[in-house]
Amino acid sequence: MEFSSILKNFIDKYGVRIVSDGDWDGILASAIILRWLRKQGYKISTEMINFPHPASIPYLKLKHCIIIEITPTRGYKVEDECILIDHHNFKGVFRLKRDKIEPIIELKEEVPSVATLVSKLLTEGKEFEDLLKYIELVDLGRTFEHDKATKLHKAYLIRIEDSKFRYKLLKMLIDLRLKELWEEIEKNANAYDVLSEIFIPQIFNRVKGFANNEGAFTWYSSDNLMERIYFREVMLRLEERYKLVVVAAIKKSEIDRLHIGSRNGQVKVNRYIEILLETLRSRILGGGREVVGGIQFRIPLKIEELNSFIKILEEAYYKYKESFG
To answer: What pLDDT sits at residue 108?
Structure first.
């Protein structure tokens, strides 16, 4: 059965309720679905979409929802039938029930973004062809490859805590007000650049090299909104100088996650993370792609353990070079 028929049957049974990741990828995927539904004769509204704050996801209780790019591993509870659309760990379309996950359309090939996946499944969204390309670069961690991808990313980051901003973008996409959309992106990207001169040097000043300066480590305070916004820019700049970049999120004197990147796949980040997982075993969870990935600590790392942990990062890097270098 085609995805369009699956979607119509689900909506005719339960109505339209979409719970989506609130990044560019999820916002555009939601807009494509709503535009498609409107063409099928359904009444649509931005109120049909929920972009939950990441911290609230483990507490969600979902039923009769179309879930975009928020997998069950994020900790929410499925109370009754939902449909999941994802392109990461779950590739394709899945039916979620209380106690099981059933594949409906399972993909083997990689898809660069969930918006691209939805566009292909519904053969919808040709009017967003250029925007999709830039969003794919953002999602793949390759914003540096195009100026418009960079601006998309900056505009999103500077408004990352602003839920009203997401709905404003969603409405522009639904109404196909793309000129106005790019004006909004430009304005917010400029605001990002102005503030970057204050906050980026703070994170740069904490950089420590490891493995003969082939790798770089730094940290940001996840309690500080502006540092949460600008650490990714620091990562991108460091990736121009180092083969591997590791940035830690520190919350209340504990490290609870790591962001790991490598420009142009000089180090295959997913392979490096595999070595870290083998080394630290039950203490961490993690995964990623060739150029970007992440680690989450099951048991947070105390700030006092930081120097010894950088040594672990270094040893894992040398092990990576022996195995894959």
So the answer is: 86
